[in-house]
Design the sequence.
């Protein structure tokens, strides 16, 4: 079985698909109704998808600009390597919070929110940040250029 590495454009496409799915899960107060199972909260899956979207986007950026494969780096490490994007302190703090919120995968809850509504607002902010980061990508990686 051969191993193939994705191109930056392919990574961006996959990242964007993750972000669209997360945005869809956040509709209707981040809840879906499944017959026979009731109401399902979709905040954790949306966080998971957005973490992956940012991670893949930053990997694509670094691969495009520096031709380095950073497949084993986490989001914070990728963020530090991507300082040329010019994210402001608020954006960096949002991504650090996303990284802490994502810790649920390891069985950790940092209890960042007083209530579900705060997490829902945070998720909306993360979606907006993802859209802004898309505009900061090199022209060749932007959707309109392709």
Sequence:
């Amino acid at each position: 079985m051969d191993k193939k590495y994705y191109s930056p454009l392919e990574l961006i496409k996959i990242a964007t698909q993750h972000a669209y799915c997360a945005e869809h899960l956040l509709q209707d107060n981040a809840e879906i109704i499944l017959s026979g199972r009731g109401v399902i909260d979709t905040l954790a899956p949306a966080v998971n998808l957005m973490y992956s979207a940012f991670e893949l986007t930053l990997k694509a950026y670094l691969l495009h600009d520096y031709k380095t494969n950073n497949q084993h780096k986490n989001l914070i490490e990728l963020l530090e390597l991507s300082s040329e994007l010019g994210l402001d302190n608020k954006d960096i703090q949002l991504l650090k919070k996303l990284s802490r919120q994502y810790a649920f995968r390891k069985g950790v809850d940092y209890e960042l929110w007083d209530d579900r509504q705060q997490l829902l607002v945070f998720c909306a902010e993360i979606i907006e940040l993802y859209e802004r980061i898309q505009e900061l990508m090199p022209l060749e990686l932007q959707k309109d250029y392709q």
Q: What stands out?
A: The chain has one domain: 8-139.
